[in-house]
Design brief:
11 helices; 321 residues; alpha/beta; 7-stranded mixed sheet; single chain
Length: 321
């Protein structure tokens, strides 16, 4: 291969830029031209791609977001859209593609593979919901952002004898919520998986008040059966002892400079993805298992969702006492 393309797709994740940089420089090391596709599959269908030099990826290692930008695109989900994407690649002499993104992005990568385009996927999703890999690019940074917020909220909660409901990202997977609960010392955690009721939360926070705690934290994943405002209103009506305050962290969890862990993870995955592509692999995703990297079929990675280790729910419960 002499010319490949790279794109970042789906929700942005800290470390995507580090992965792009690694792909480009690994390509240059092998004498391969690397083109950046702007705005993901939307840019692919529009033929919006440009050659990336070493200079153009200089200084992006520490930047959050994605310099290639990202966009949703429904047209690519159709057979006609996928054929058009293949044509755009052929028009630009692109012989292979590296896709950096989450579940939907990797499904798009699999679609390209199925129409004959050599493709390697790199998992990047702050929810840590991609099956087959221990972790994805952006997870560590997002979790540290949440913990920083929880630590700050505890300071003010203690000063005013308050309980904070902290809503974090996690539409289908509550990994960030449960880990933030364990590492941030929350009294209770609510995720799409654990089915905690609002009454159980009220009982837990009231118990914390009765036992003399000066603050309490409830961490709620956005994919829980109820939203943060609904829960906060319910707790106010129950008069549990604490004043109730709600903080929705929202998209702050996606931004910010990636941690050292995410920079290294993204760098290793980017270089390895290039190696796989140049060795003739396709339809694979780079997975981190333990300390090692290994390719797994995209068809397997996109067929299911990564589940939270049950032990984490037990840890959250035990440590909330």
């Amino acid at each position: 291969m002499k010319r490949i393309a790279v794109m970042t797709s789906g929700g942005d994740a800290p470390g995507m830029n580090a992965a792009v940089r690694a792909v480009v420089r690994a390509g240059l090391d092998k004498g391969v031209e690397v083109y950046g596709i702007r705005q993901a599959y939307q840019g692919l269908l529009a033929g919006d791609m440009a050659l990336l030099s070493s200079r153009e990826v200089s200084g992006i290692l520490q930047r959050g977001g994605t310099v290639l930008q990202t966009a949703r695109n429904e047209a690519f989900k159709t057979a006609q859209g996928q054929m058009k994407g293949q044509r755009r690649l052929n028009e630009n002499g692109i012989e292979g593609v590296i896709v950096i993104g989450g579940d939907g992005s990797l499904r798009g990568a699999l679609a390209l593979h199925n129409v004959g385009v050599p493709v390697i996927g790199i998992p990047a999703s702050i929810d840590n919901d991609i099956w087959g890999t221990d972790t994805s690019i952006g997870v560590d940074t997002a979790l540290n952002t949440i913990l920083d917020a929880v630590d700050r909220l505890r300071d003010t909660a203690t000063s005013h004898n308050r309980a904070f409901v902290v809503e974090v990202m996690g539409r289908d997977c509550g990994y960030l919520a449960v880990m933030a609960g364990i590492l941030g010392g929350a009294e209770i955690v609510v995720t799409p998986e654990n089915g905690v009721t609002m009454n159980e939360i009220a009982v837990s926070l009231e118990d914390a008040y009765i036992r003399g705690k000066t603050h309490a934290i409830a961490v709620l994943a956005e994919g829980a059966p109820y939203q943060g405002p609904e829960l906060a209103h319910y707790l106010e009506q129950k008069h549990i002892g604490f004043e109730i305050r709600l903080t929705i962290l929202g998209h702050t969890q996606r931004g910010g400079s990636p941690t050292a862990f995410d920079r290294l993870l993204a760098t290793r995955m980017g270089v390895y993805a290039m190696e796989l592509l140049l060795n003739g692999e396709s339809g694979k995703m780079v997975a981190r298992i333990g300390r090692e990297q290994t390719p797994i079929p995209l068809a397997e990675a996109t067929a299911r969702t990564r589940q939270i280790t049950p032990e984490y729910f037990d840890l959250a419960r035990i440590l909330s006492r």
